[in-house]
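Chapter summary example.
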Amino acid sequence: MALYEHVFLARQDLSQQQVDALVEQYKGVIAANGGSVGRIENWGLKSLTYRVKKNRKAYYTLMDITCPPAALNEMERQMGLSEDVLRFLTIKVEAHEEGASAMMQKREERSERGGFGDRDRGDRGPRSFGDRDRGDRPPRSFGGDRDGGGDRGPRRPREGFEGGAE
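The structure predicted for these 166 residues follows.
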């Protein structure tokens, strides 16, 4: 049987119990068609980058699935019909990951570090802001000089205009 990682986004106005009920419903669909669901991770309510079906947030859920393709097609068909599921994505994998997913690891590491303001820049040194604090460049000239100097050199007069060459 094929191995899949499946993530779906549920509407923001659902409760966590309703999201869990959706997971159980889709687990039943997979089991009825000869497959099994392994790890299930609820990533919680997260902000979306852009609105999806008038929702600004969604409940994210990851499921590791082992099933034949027909079972996956049936589950995706039912998700497409459901108004509670905003989006879903299924990826075929060679093997299921052991332990927590990258999303859950990220949350755990963040709590261990203490927050974003405590980050150590390591061997990168202090931040610099462009040319402002660099002493290896001369100040820029934008051609505002009356002598025609500047970055592009002196201007040549144009023919046929007042003050131009004849």
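To summarize the output: DSSP finds three helices and four strands in the chain.
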